[in-house]
Each structure stands twice: as structure tokens, then as C-alpha cells.
Design goal:
The protein has 210 residues and is α+β, with helices and mostly antiparallel strands. It contains five helices and four strands.
Length: 210
């Protein structure tokens, strides 16, 4: 009888320990905790809702960290991230363009004299157009002066009206020619700047190879 009680007691103890272990295993579920923006701590399922914008830490039943979920990015952080990505893409595109420009220059020119000769040819062409346009503008101004004198001397209203119309047409042509001349001067400046840059880059590339 005493032996039976001892066995019964041992069996109950075993079941009790098994129940505790099972309870601990069951309690190994995710216990979440987080600290909100005001510094308050939240635990359990409420932490997921209370700290939707904060870092959430998941603990096991013994308090060990099993998972950490970083706080989602704020709108400001998202904008900063997008801006950083945009700048990175711009920098990569710039480096690609520079590399292609270097390869282009080295493939076209063998010496500095080649660059200078190409520059002089383009400048000569632009300067020729400038000279032609300036001569055209001078002729328009001469015709305009003649037209003013002629118009002032005309007494017939019909002829006078026609001469005035000719004067307006000359003025339109002169305005257009003046604009063309300004564009040509800018074109000449662009050519000078372009070949100055290419000469500098060519020298830099050649020096780096030595």
C-alpha cells in the first residue's frame, strides 16, 4: 500500500513537471515590447498597435530577444533616402559621361595639334558666317537710310505708304540679322570653350599615361 502511494506520488509529480514544461513551451510565444515616441513602454499585442512607428522587440518566455523589427521610415526619412538615391544616380551618370568623353577624345585625336587644327577650322567657318552677316547688316542699314530719305521726299500718299511698308520690312530683316549675329558670336565662344576643355582633358589623359 505504501509502495502504491509512493508510485502515485511520483506519477503526479511527473505529470505536474510535464505540465509546467508544457506551459513554459506554450508561453514561448512572441512577447512584444516597444517604446513609443514619448518614452513609454508597451508590451504584448498592444505594443504592435501602440508603437506602429517605433522599433518592436520580440522576447521569448525567458526574456531573451528573438526578433527585432526596426521602426518604419518617416516621410522625411523616405524623402532623404529618395534624394540620396537620385544624387547617386546623377553621380554615376556623370562619371559615365566623363569616361565616354575621355574615350572619344583619345579615339579622335592623336596629338594636341589635331585638336588645335580642328578648333581653327571650326572657328574659321563661324568667323566667315559672322563676316557675311555683318556685311548683310551694313547693306540693310544703308538701304534703310536710303528708304528714310526717299520716304520723306515722297508726296504721293500711295507711293509714300508703299515706301513706309518697305521700311518696316527692312527693319524686320535688320532685327533678324542682328539676332543671327549674336547667335554666331555665341557659337564662336562655344567652340573656343569646347576645344579649350578638350585640350585640357587630352593633356590630362596623356600625362596620366606617362
Amino acid at each position: 500500500m505504501a509502495r502504491l502511494k509512493t508510485l502515485t506520488r511520483s506519477l503526479l509529480l511527473t505529470l505536474l513537471l510535464a505540465g509546467i514544461d508544457g506551459l513554459l513551451a506554450t508561453n514561448a510565444w512572441a512577447i512584444k515590447k516597444c517604446q513609443d515616441s514619448e518614452g513609454n513602454w508597451h508590451y504584448g499585442d498592444f505594443a504592435v498597435h501602440a508603437c506602429s512607428q517605433s522599433k518592436i522587440t520580440t522576447l521569448d518566455a525567458r526574456g531573451n530577444i528573438t526578433e527585432e523589427q526596426e521602426a518604419p521610415l518617416t516621410d522625411q526619412e523616405k524623402q532623404a533616402q529618395a534624394e540620396a538615391l537620385r544624387l547617386e544616380k546623377e553621380q554615376l551618370a556623370k562619371e559615365t559621361d566623363q569616361r565616354e568623353e575621355r574615350n572619344r577624345i583619345l579615339s579622335i585625336y592623336e596629338t594636341e595639334a589635331d585638336i588645335e587644327r580642328q578648333r581653327d577650322n571650326q572657328l574659321y567657318s563661324v568667323q566667315s558666317n559672322i563676316d557675311v552677316t555683318k556685311a548683310y547688316i551694313k547693306s540693310l542699314k544703308d538701304r534703310q537710310a536710303t528708304n528714310k530719305t526717299k520716304t520723306a521726299a515722297i508726296t504721293n500718299s500711295v507711293l509714300k505708304q508703299q515706301s513706309e511698308a518697305d521700311g518696316v520690312e527692312l527693319m524686320d530683316k535688320l532685327t533678324s540679322a542682328d539676332k543671327q549675329l549674336l547667335d554666331l558670336y555665341q557659337q564662336k565662344k562655344n567652340v573656343e570653350m569646347k576645344f579649350e576643355r578638350e585640350l585640357d582633358l587630352y593633356r590630362e589623359l596623356r600625362n596620366s599615361e606617362e
